[in-house]
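Posting this for the archive.
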Amino acid sequence: MDDVRLFEKEIGFRKYQKDSCWGGFQVDFDRHTAFMYPSMVSPINLGISLLSVNLKGEKLFAIKVKEAFRSRTDKIVRRMKEIGNRGIKSLFTKGTRWAVDTAFGEEEDMKYTEFSGVFSFSDPTVISHEAFEVAKEFLTDFSDFEIKFWRMESVEDHKSLKEGSMYITVLGGPGGFSDTVVTELKKSKYSSDEGRASYSALACVANYAWARRQIVKGLIEMAVYDAFGKSIKTKKLWDESLNIIYDDGQTLTYRKNAVGNLLPRLCKDENGIFFVDNDGKIGRMVSIDV
């Protein structure tokens, strides 16, 4: 049975569309009558970011960056274990802003992140003590992230993409924190007090995921500096959520394995990763096996 047949039966259903880039879907509901289904798109804000590195897309260079990343991560993790509940609350509220203010990347990174990497309606007071503890654990454990190295090929004329250069994708999100929060929530009408509390809790999860991806971006940047010096630049080009719930003022939208409107859009197929804009394909990346 198609997903759309399931959603059409739900109160407030407006529109369903499949995602051509990641094989998922987006479904829209009337925000006034919709219900919250927190588990529908869990893990909340599992997403992917794209970084360019001013290096040739060669295996030797990728290996050096990977080794430096491991070393740099070990050092940072020891420092971040002392963050405490106050720091976690700030992270739940600020998302990517928290990571940037903590020296993981630059202000400009927020321009290339969907929603600037922060939901302002988060409320840490609705997060349980148990969930706080899980959040502290996963903040210093990036084992759930998938970091891949690529060489750009077959590029059309585009200012952000350079043929032969190294690119890195960072796929990850909130880790086990999302499951912990989602299992504590129940189906509820979105406009109710319980529904709004659930929405605020899920915003904390989304902000947490954005912060984690930004931390990894910052660590990769530090690793590149460690391996090749500060003359080699790392730039964030794109960061979108694949799983997200958001209210645009008229519609409550759920995306599952689907991306939004940031361009160039990052897509996948059986041959790897490629880019599209409004005029079609503009480039493809080939995996560097490290």
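The chain has a mean pLDDT of 91. Residues 193-228 form the longest helix (36 residues).
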